[in-house]
Amino acid sequence: MNLYNIKHPEEQVNFAQAVRQGLGKDQGLFFPEIIPTLTNIDELLALPLVERSQKILAALIGEEIPTETLNAMVKNAFTFPAPLAKVNDAIYALELFHGPTLAFKDFGGRFMAQALAAVRGDGKITILTATSGDTGAAVAHAFYGLENINVVILYPKGKISPLQEKLFCTLGGNIRTVAIESDFDACQALVKQAFDDEELRQAIGLNSANSINISRLLAQVCYYFEAVAQLPKEKRENVVVSVPSGNFGNLTAGLIAKTLGLPIKRFIASTNANDTVPRYLRSGQWEPNATVATLSNAMDVSRPNNWPRVEELFKRNGWNLADLGSDALNDVETEQALKAQNDEGYLCEPHGAIAYQVLKDQLQAGETGIFLCTAHPAKFKESVERILDIELPLPEALDKHNKLPLLSDVMENDFAKLRAYLLAK
Length: 425
Ligand SMILES: Cc1ncc(COP(=O)(O)O)c(C=O)c1O
What we know:
- By secondary structure, the chain is an alpha/beta fold.
- It has 18 helices and 14 strands.
- Strand 10, helix 11 (249-260) and strand 11 (266-271) form a beta-alpha-beta unit.
- 52% of the residues are buried.
- It binds pyridoxal-5'-phosphate.
- The site of pyridoxal-5'-phosphate has 18 residues, from helix 6 and helix 11.
């Protein structure tokens, strides 16, 4: 598989290098040179998740990873289902929260850990990643206990749910967590700065596990196929998918699935009040505001990292950005959406509720809508219980971690301090 740096197309790498490096020169994102068109979509859709995903990833990655190795990677990573739940005759929920950390990031995180273990070579590796909530848990659990791989996770102090924090800040071992006294964009900026520091990069074998790492993105492509595969055949014609979006990795993966030939009519990017993209799609002006804290905190991102990849896909496919649906919901509207969903008999959480409501608002007659449920409702227990006036039992995975003490370090938003911390350990 050949990939190029979107900012500097002359920088070209193979899959192994892209996985090890994460980001290219000038923080440029790597992007596949070729995304093949699959001609056997119906055959693929008839296969079970793991087998189908092995074939999709083989088509994307090519011969660079031996078939047996790739098959084992997929089998080890995708150990849980992604069921499609019917909400009403026209709307389905793709439940991506049945993995060990109850969030969609388990797909990407676990596949990336497998990929890195397969291509790492002999050197020491430090995974440095920023999280607005769920990435941290997925990465921490995917890498926990892997030999010679250290993981450092930055997150905005006080801006993620207490339960989310417990899930990844209680592991210890090769997983270290740092609460940064600022917002997610600052955490992301610190990670980028670290990657720009060549000396640091070499010294600790820096690698990222954000959605900027191509292996995570490729893994996420697979569950869009799984969604369509579970639809009744007569409903596969006019499929519209609504993606709750923050950093836009998930949407990028969906667009790659469409590029491969998956029959998806259009996508909708659904955001919270951090609405840089919906405003950009309306006005043509890229004008990020300061990030604001919302109920759907994992989407509190005003400068989405993956947006250049989205634009690249539209450009290369000759698609029109005007065809990308979008809208933003504020917290009051998010609460109403969660209640409306619950009234329809489907229990969700704020991120999925936004994707559901925007889908419902924009779905046309004759279309089948799918929205992505990116996290288990219990991961946002406080909000869900308050808004719906119900009591939610904690699933076992959360309950176990909830009882353990937090092991995080606290740090100012200061790159010099982070640098020293990384070098010291
Ligand atoms: C629960 C949840 N929903 C949605 C998103 C947004 O996904 P993306 O950053 O790929 O747009 C995230 C990202 O962390 C998330 O944790």
